[in-house]
Amino acid sequence: MTHAATFTLQAANKPVTEDTAYDDNEAKWRAVLSRDARADGSFYFSVLTTGVYCRPSCGARTPKRENVDFHTCPEAAEKAGFRPCKRCRPLESPAWAERQALIARACRFIEDAESTPVLADIAAHVGLSAYHFHRIFKEITGVTPKAYASSHRTKNVRGSLKESRTVTEAIYDAGYNANSRFYEKAQGFLGMTPKQYRAGGSGLVVRYSISPCSLGFMLMGATERGICTIQLGDNREALMDALKAEFPRATLEEATDDMNGWLKGALTLVDKGKQTLDTLPLDIRGTAFQEQVWQALRAIPEGETKTYSQVAEAIGKPKAVRAVANACANNRIAIAIPCHRVIRGDGSLSGYRWGVERKAKLLKREAGE
């Protein structure tokens, strides 16, 4: 299974982020309270008063915390004297795992095909009707099979542009049937011209500035099109390393001016939260789905929060909750795309790319505390 399929399916089912790291009992208990299916297989919990052990997503009545213990595997729970729950059946594969395996097969089929396969052919490959397959694929990944195939071609273009002798060769290698179709979309998914990307960003100038702020240090980077990154960190060195990794062959120039007022606006946004978002032009790079999520985040008013489910509903994809969480995790423009305003369904804070403590500070500040 290629990296592209693995990434997409993790986004839809068990993304590896702070939000789903069950490293302590507090995090495990939160997963039990929210019946988080992403935690299934990561640990099991037992209930002293009933003598059974369950998977975290078990739909049985929530037990009292003092009666609950946690186990790494079914064997450990049974060794402690507990029997498997008859409701959630912790010894069986969870339903999401079976669906994930099926969609993984479909993703491999799409990726291995010489040209983009039609929906009926993909569905037949995994033994489902086109309608049923389309519904499950979108439920699991958050995107349609057509959108996934398009995203895979985009990834192929990114790789081919670096390896092929010509841009035209890379375009056809990725499955585009006409140059015009590729160039119509190139700026949207590359954030630069194909020629620039083929050279690893060579010829692209990213001006940057690192400034102290109320949350530590802020790095703002901008192309001629707008702000391409706002990063938060504890020191200048780490922020500079992140910028170099993101734009390995671009010309990085430290700004000596205010960059058309963008730097002042970004600092005001970080420190006071009073900058009007529309006054900061953004050079956003992402998939169509990610950009849809990021636009929804920008619509959340200051001082308010939304759950991942509410954001999914706002973009018309109510079942794409986990894919929404992944889009938040992949946001590269702190504050201006306010992923810090998205919280768990139970009101608790989820993982944040720049640290949960910063997320808490931002929310308290915006709430006027």
CATH homologous superfamily of the largest domain - what is it?
A: Homeodomain-like
- Share in β-strands: 5-15%
CATH C-level category of the largest domain:
Mainly Alpha
CATH topology of the largest domain: Arc Repressor Mutant, subunit A
Number of strands: 10
Overall 3D geometry?
A: globular
How confident overall, as mean pLDDT? 76
Unreliable stretches covering 5 or more consecutive residues: 1-20, 160-165, 167-192
Question: How many domains is the backbone divided into?
Answer: 4
The gyration radius over C-alpha positions equals 23 Å
* Cα-to-Cα separation, first versus last residue: 48 Å
Biggest sheet statistics: 4 strands, mixed
In spatial order, strands of the major sheet run 3-1-2-4
In CATH, the architecture of the largest domain is Orthogonal Bundle
User: SSE order, as H and E?
Assistant: HHEEEHEHHHHHHHEEEHEHHEHHEH
The portion of residues assigned to helices is 40-55%
Which secondary-structure class do the elements indicate? Answer: alpha/beta
Query: What count of helical segments does DSSP give?
Result: 16
